[in-house]
Design goal:
With 443 residues, this protein is an alpha/beta fold. The protein folds into two domains: 101 residues, no CATH class; 275 residues, Alpha-Beta Horseshoe (pyruvate-formate lyase- activating enzyme), CATH 3.80.30. 40% of the residues lie in helices and 17% in strands. The protein has 17 helices and 15 strands. The radius of gyration is 22 Å and the shape is globular. The structure holds S-adenosylmethionine and iron/sulfur cluster. The site of iron/sulfur cluster has 11 residues, from loops.
Length: 443
């Protein structure tokens, strides 16, 4: 018998037959949360070429704390769905050592540009690739380099991404010594058939369970799970078990990610041959799965702070995901270190060279390895503030009410927005489509 969670979700989505969906959101299906979630990174390839001299470092106030993103580019294998660029190999000691020399050089160049002996840092985010592909002693060495150039206070956010198959007790000890206070784990699914199909370790459940036990043993306060929906072989029943298992393990937060098929990801060729009807059905399936996790999580202790992000009240130290390029005010600055890393200085968003050779060549010449970038217009920054206010704790900007009068009228009449102009439960189902209405550039 079909579970009530699935039945309710199906009912919810069936209220929106294809012609109505097309009328509301346009003729073509869009599977998009991940694109909205990673904006402006998601349109970075369209940015023009720039260099460090195009970036106004001198306008950064001396007392402004930094956000720092460090890219660790390697992964053991390429997961079938993955849309992120990575180097597929276990790096040897020499390769890691060489990369660290470049990271250190980048930090040195930034400290000089900012005229600081140590960079006061509010957030450090070590992402990938797979940062935990590094050994415990390599992680300790990386943390020592960071500590040499960055100063933190006790409130600093120190975040690292990890995959459950690469986490060990020694690495967690290294996290603890450095003061990592949030670990974001790529769980994706617990189902063995799905895991096999996407090339992930089949004993994910026991690995995640061990990882979470160790992280708690060392009192790492925040643990986030990334759980994906719309993966190959992932039926409604399998996804429901994924939600149940994830919530039973009680992470501080869960990010649900719609599988997005982008150029460069293993599924791209298949999806480009997909008929419009098949793509539409895939979109509907993801909508049903979205309704499932929304219903399930909202009847548990988790609170939604963004359309796809749920957090336990006790862990709401900061209510949104802290991926640094989501600095919604675009007011501060983020230094991006490493191959293909992203940064921004106020509203100027930039990306480092994405190939090792170009990255290394720039640094060998003592030049910051910045490749592409663009200044977001006042309208871009304003639209980003507006779309983020739909779900987070900030207020819908007053000036946006005039600009978006017609859209607001439509969204409130359709019961997608409430009187406070926050997304309703039905609105959250179409969170990304609504964001596009307000800000078509995300596409
Ligand atoms: C940069 S990855 C790092 C995680 C880590 N390497 C791992 O695999 O466990 C961050 C997250 O992006 C998500 N992701 C990757 N490809 C995606 C795609 N095509 N669509 C949606 N989410 C995706 C996955 O959930 C993954 O955990
Ligand atoms: S999901 Fe993680 S481990 Fe898999 S290819 Fe992407 S970054 Fe690497």
């Amino acid at each position: 018998m079909t579970s009530p969670v699935i039945q309710n979700a199906l009912k919810k989505v069936e209220r929106f037959p294809a012609p109505l969906l097309s009328m509301l959101f346009g003729a073509k299906p869009k599977i998009t949360m991940e694109k909205a979630h990673t904006f402006p990174a998601s349109i970075m390839h369209t940015f023009p070429k720039i260099t460090a001299s195009d970036i106004a470092f001198k306008h950064i106030p001396k007392n402004q704390p930094a956000h720092i993103y460090i890219q660790i580019p390697w992964c053991k294998i390429r997961c079938l769905y993955c849309r992120y660029p990575s180097i597929i190999k276990k790096p040897n000691k020499v390769e890691v050592q060489k990369y660290f020399i470049y990271l250190e050089k980048e930090l040195m160049l930034y400290a000089a540009k900012l005229e600081r002996t140590k960079i006061f840092t509010e957030t450090i985010y070590i992402g990938g690739g797979t940062p935990t592909i590094l050994s415990a002693s390599e992680l300790t060495r990386l943390f020592a380099i960071i500590t040499k150039y960055c100063a933190f206070d006790s409130q600093a956010f120190k975040i690292i991404e990890c995959s459950p198959s690469t986490i060990t007790e020694k690495k967690i000890q290294a996290f603890k010594n450095f003061g990592i206070n949030r670990v974001s784990m790529g769980v994706q699914s617990f189902n063995r058939t799905v895991l096999k199909r996407i090339f992930r370790s089949k004993d994910n459940y026991s690995r995640v369970k061990t990882a979470i036990r160790l992280l708690r043993k060392y009192e790492i306060p925040e643990i986030n799970f990334d759980v994906m929906l719309g993966l190959p072989e992932q039926t409604y029943e399998i996804f429901l078990r994924d939600i149940e298992t994830a919530t039973r393990l009680c992470p501080s937060s869960i990010s649900f990610l719609d599988m997005e098929v982008w150029q460069g990801c293993g599924l791209y060729i298949l999806s480009s041959k997909e008929s419009v009807d098949d793509a539409f059905n895939r979109w509907k399936m993801q909508l049903v799965m979205t309704a499932m996790y929304q219903d399930y999580l909202e009847s548990s202790n988790y609170i939604p702070t963004r359309p796809h992000y749920y957090v336990l009240p006790a862990d709401m130290r900061h209510p949104s995901t802290r991926v640094p390029y989501l600095d919604s005010r675009m007011a501060g600055f983020q230094i991006g270190l490493g191959i293909g890393a992203l940064g921004h200085i106020g509203t100027t968003v930039y990306r480092n060279f994405a190939t090792p050779t170009a990255y290394e060549t720039a640094l060998a010449q003592n030049v910051l390895p910045i490749d592409k970038g663009m200044r977001l217009s006042a309208h871009d920054a304003h639209a980003m503030r507006t779309i983020r206010s739909l779900c987070d704790e900030t207020r819908f900007p007053e000036e946006s009410k005039k600009q978006y009068t017609k859209i607001i009228h439509f969204l409130t009449r359709a019961h997608f927005l409430d009187e406070q102009l926050k997304l309703t439960a039905t609105g959250r189902l179409f969170g990304s489509e609504i964001m596009y209405m307000l800000y078509p550039k995300i596409k």
